[in-house]
Amino acid sequence: MNIKIQSLLYVGVWLLCTVGAGSASAQIVNYADSGVPDRVGLELLQEEPHDIIYLTEESGGGWVKARLLDFPGRKIPSDPKGVLQFEVIGIELKKFVTDWKNIEKIDLWETRLERETAEMIAKEDFKGAYPFLSVLIRDYPNRPGLRKLRSEFLWKDAIKRAKSGEFEATLAMLEELWRYAPEFQPTTVLGALSGVTDKLMMKLVKEGRLEHAQQMLARLEKDYGEGRLASISKWNKLFLQLAQKKQREAIAALEAKDYRAARALSRESVAVRPDIEGGKELIRKIDTIYPLVRVGVLQTATVLDPTRIDNWASRRAGRLVYRTLFEMKGAGPEGGEYDFVFGETETTPYRTQFDLVLETEKLKPPLSEIQGFTIADKIAERATRNTPEYFSPWAAAVEAIGMDGPKRVECTLRRPHVLPSCLLQIPIDGSWFGGKKGAPTGAYQRDAESDDTVRYILAAEPETPEQLREVVEIRQASASDGVSMLLQGELDVLDQLFPADAVRLSKSRDIRVKNYPLPTVHMLVPCSDHAYLAERTFRRALVYGINRADILNGELLEGLEVPGCQVVSGPFPAGIEMDDPLGYAYDKSIAPRRYEPRLAKLLMTLNANQMKAMADRKKETVPEMKPIRLAFPADNLSRVACEAIMSQWQLLDLKIELVELPVGRTYPDPGTADIVYVSAAIWEPIIDARRLLGPEGLAGSSDQLVGLGLRRIEEARDWRMVRDGLLDLHAIAHHELPVLPLWQMVDSYAYRRELTGVGNDIVSLYQNADKWQLNH
């Protein structure tokens, strides 16, 4: 039937009466008996696509928004006859018709989009034009004028960005324009490309980003050729001059025996101009004369101790500077595998006698200068109460220490012990050889340090010409920065990787990525007298209030599945694979507590009632609920984890304050924090259980059940008793929560292929540092 706009208005009034004013207002704007539709700008894209039919004055005038009309090829007929059928936006299940003679014009949807885009481009409103242009590209890619419209957008947006100094964005726009429409003003576009390249190169050089500038120049030369862009020839010449200048400076530094400067300058020269004559040969020559390796780390060490279980940096750098009486080399079927640094060990069949046999003739200074009585004195001090070296598990294990000749130290044990060597991981310093206390005994010694850099130089004459003279640790602001520097050759080694970074680096043919064989256990350790943290019920609420699986899988692993990385229910490692001997202390039958925020709130209420009842009985005041200060080491992995934990605890209406520890520190000073995020190397639970949970350990637990569990382990006579005791201790720790277990992480490291001698299955990065070599 034929209709007039008045009929549609009648329908609109009926809708207003039946569905309410809120809906009717949205319906009424879809048609009118006079005028034109209001300009709505970007809100147009929120409307259903439609065409606008304008009616003639003779037919009553007005306009209507119709669902997209079904024209062949979306072209309006040039000489239409008869009637047009259409559907009105907002009026469902009803079709309308009108004579073509009643239609003044039809404004197609895509024509409106083009008009809006062109008008916004003319006003230099490129942010406003972009959504319209995107819809056109998506829905109408074959529109005749689209290529020109898109080219105009890219060209004028590039001009505007260039005027604002956004040279990187300008270059991206111009390159996209050249790729998309090379026929669009080619001479002008290439001139603009040359000009913006020139400005961007000057900016990069001024900022000292020479390698980035060279990489960009090489790409532009590959894409456009030197003849098309005048700036390419100009900067190729300038970079060659700069590279030659740095090369001359590197040669001068080499002649002056300033090897550090020579190394840096020679690499800068090649970074600026990779094909400079003699560039790589000069690098090889300098590395041969003075081999040096740059190691990217998340934390530089302030304390050097290769036996620390809670401080990754201290443990790593400590191994570079100090040797240990017994050094862990890896994990075996029955606990760790240890090397006696001065020789060999002998154990009687019943494991009640443990002898240390010195083989000094096989050692190099200073280790070759050791005396048997010195070792006997040191391990005796470890069993003597009231000495700084006292260690109760060793004191409980050994009954007598004697010597059978100058090179044999005999230790008689009170009872059979499954692994006495693990009790004697004692750092060795210069005082053992009559030197200064604290003097290094490893291959390297600490030299200069700055805010982000620490140098370790070879402590003695090199054993081979290829032996490294220096190991330079450079602290990275983030793990991603370290990955970029390793890929660019600015670093030779990365000490610790995020799992996602390890996957990324493993795809590079220039990089090797390896896992450390022993995982670390991450936990929260109470470290103050906070009245609520002292309550087991409250600590249990905190565990239920952390979505550990979500933080581990989403934040730390970035959605990757990494074997061995898992949420844990106790303070011991769970192993990496099924039936892994590394997990001998972990009870797999104890499932980690799930994320239960409602239960956490209930436990917090229960704890508050318990504390109130206790205070009433003692006629004391209920302790104030103070904010919980959560401390974490200054690395981005710990920071990410603790920020996520804080946000989840805040959902429990807890007040949390984050405390970032100073660089190199992993445990807060007294009174500065209440609980600390710890990544612990619990690699030998027989000994590490006390170092973590004992009264003098990290957790400082005085819990009687924990103490009983520790003593039972130390009195074990065989591996079955050890395992049973550790499983019991796992259950006790799960119940008493002296620490709040989070997850286990499998850590990895990466190094460039030019570096050899690193070794496989190394427990510590610098385990074989004295054998590292650079091979170009």
TrEMBL record:
<keyword id="KW-0732">Signal</keyword>
<protein>
    <recommendedName>
        <fullName>Solute-binding protein family 5 domain-containing protein</fullName>
    </recommendedName>
</protein>
<dbReference type="Pfam" id="PF00496">
    <property type="entry name" value="SBP_bac_5"/>
</dbReference>
<feature type="signal peptide">
    <location>
        <begin position="1"/>
        <end position="26"/>
    </location>
</feature>
<feature type="domain" description="Solute-binding protein family 5">
    <location>
        <begin position="471"/>
        <end position="662"/>
    </location>
</feature>
<dbReference type="InterPro" id="IPR000914">
    <property type="entry name" value="SBP_5_dom"/>
</dbReference>
<dbReference type="InterPro" id="IPR039424">
    <property type="entry name" value="SBP_5"/>
</dbReference>
